[in-house]
Amino acid sequence: MKITTQMVKELRGATGAGVLEAKKALEATNGDYDKAVDLLREKGAARAAKRSHREASEGIIEMYSHPGNRVGVILELNCETDFVARNEQFQTLAHDLALHIAAMNPKYLSREDVDQTELDRETEVLKNQALAEGKPENIVERIVMGRLNKFYEEFCLLDQKFVKDDSLTIQQLITDSIRTTGENIKVRRFARYELGEEI
């Protein structure tokens, strides 16, 4: 299939990829737009992994207040340079992440941050549920792992589906930004406050 400049332009607009990179992705997928997007995302993940060891000590503090001022979020998003921290795309990412946190109320940043006591309790509850449902013991562990993944998707920010586009997780959203900015980007910490919540 002939790759047109319009096809390359559309793919670049959606992914932030360079001209050559977008053209190669379209050629590799025989002009299939969706497959080209997936290919660029996979490459972005590989690049993000290479950058993950680099120090990210610049960035911004984003503050978001939900309309009505009943929910507020403070987020620290880090990158490698002050130049990227002032970039509109980076600032939009920070705003979107803060808005997402306000809407979805994650308890933890990542799976590694889940309190071990809570994880053990949740695992035990899920195991007992599966057994009570009459599931065979030899598959209970796989059932528990599947349900634990749902637990992570509900309570861990990086595993949650992005509130503005549920085809992406927050980790994928950040990985896409790493690919387009060329720098390591990390959510360092966040706090969510809701009026009247228990202290």
Q: Report on the biggest sheet.
A: 3 strands, antiparallel
Percent of sequence in beta strands? 15-25%
What is the molecular shape?
globular
Number of domains: 3
String of helices and strands = HHHEEHHHHEEHE
How far is it from the N-terminal to the C-terminal residue, by CA? Answer: 61 Å
What is the share of helical residues? 40-55%
CATH topology of the largest domain: Tetrahydropterin Synthase, Chain A
Q: Largest beta sheet: what is the strand line-up?
A: 1-2-5
Count of alpha and pi helical runs: 8
Taking all Cα atoms into account, the compactness measure Rg is 20 Å
Mean pLDDT across the residues is 85
Q: What distinguishing features does this structure have?
A:
alpha+beta; Tetrahydropterin Synthase, Chain A; 3-stranded antiparallel β-sheet; two-stranded antiparallel sheet; 8 helices
Question: What does this protein structure show overall?
Answer:
It is built from eight helices and five strands. The protein is an alpha+beta fold and about 200 residues long. It has three domains: about 5-50, Helicase, Ruva Protein, domain 3 (Orthogonal Bundle); about 60-110 and about 155-195, Tetrahydropterin Synthase, Chain A, CATH 3.30.479.20; about 115-145. The strands form two sheets. It has a three-stranded antiparallel beta sheet. It has a two-stranded antiparallel ribbon with strand order 3-4. Strand 1 and strand 2 form a beta hairpin. Helix 2 (about 20-30) packs across helix 3 and helix 6 packs across helix 7 (about 135-155). The protein is globular, with a radius of gyration of 20 Å.
